[in-house]
Amino acid sequence: MNKLWIALALWLAAANVQATDVDSSAMVEAEATARQLIETVRTEKQEQVRVVASNELEELLQKTLEMEGSYAYNFKDLEGISILQAPNKDFRIFSWQLYVDKNDYQYRGFIQKKDGKVYKLDDKSDEMRGVEFSLLKPEKWYGALYYNMQAFEHEGQACYLLFGLDSYGFFNRRKILEVLYFDESGQPMFGKTVLEMKDGRGQLRQVKRMIMEYSATVSVTLNYNKNLQKVVFDHLVYGSPVKGEMPTNVPDGSYSGMEMTKEGFWRYVDKVYKDDPNNVLINATSYESILEQEKEKPKKKKKDIFGRSK
Fold first, then answer.
1. CA 15 from chain center: how many Å?
2. Which residue, 76, 98, 115, sits at the end of a domain?
């Protein structure tokens, strides 16, 4: 009887190795095809060809990620698609950018969990209002190309800061600070009121996500600094980076940020580094200064139709 059990165990082990080999071959083949498709998405000049390639890539990745054992495959040769894995290895996020035209950038993505569940991310950002305060699901996602992830805890719940780029339009870009967590059913949710930021009027507000919109002619920082243990981002001011163009947001050379409290909130920090007057990039005016200047302006006396003071 023992010999029978040993033989059966050896047969099962051999069958498992063969199945793993088959899965591995399928993964390698799928990765090679995905690599070709994302290259087309990134470099093809014809819009329709790019769109079709992105749709095919989306279908291929969904089928591939839903294959048993696919979570163990690292897709290390799949350049052009951002793949971020959670520090605890419980899930990973795939995201990529589709350039449609100069004023239309769209994003595609998936969340793959270690338990085998796969969630397709549908970019609905063009339809959204009140983005900073919206709780979103995978089927209504604020699309972005994610470039970093930082885990944290809020009231005992595992949460993740996601840092993303939205190329947005010809004149302006956006960077996104998103909050991801999983609800009681295990479904991913986007947006949690744990971020503190200053709005356009200089008022502190609690938001679910932070959107930084800025001129396409400049570079803007938004990331987690491990040494400082803070989220660090460029302080934006309202100015004209290009002569003759409409004013927009640009960095002034100083940095603001957020630091986490013991309760798991990210509290706004006005100045992360000491200001260096020699490092100011442009001559622009902040929203706060504009408001102060408006307060200081003398009020004009009202006059009648003959020019006399009322």
1. 42
2. 76
> Per the structure, how many domains does the chain have?
2
pLDDT (tens digit per residue) in 233-288: 999 998 776 666 677 899 988 999 999 999 999 999 998 876 554 444 444 444 44
* C-alpha dist (Å) from residue 197 to 35, 116, 140, 220, 258: 39, 36, 24, 17, 8
Altogether, the residues listed in the chain come to a count of 310
Is residue 98, in this structure, part of any structural domain at all? yes
Give Cα 306 distance to the centre of its chain.
Answer: 59
Question: H-helix or E-strand containing 204?
Answer: strand 204-207
Least confident piece of the model among 1-10, 195-204, 210-219, 249-258: 1-10
State whether the Cα torsion 94-70-119-117 is positive or negative.
negative
The secondary structure of residue 264, as a DSSP letter, is: S
Element (H or E) spanning 106, and its range? strand 104-113
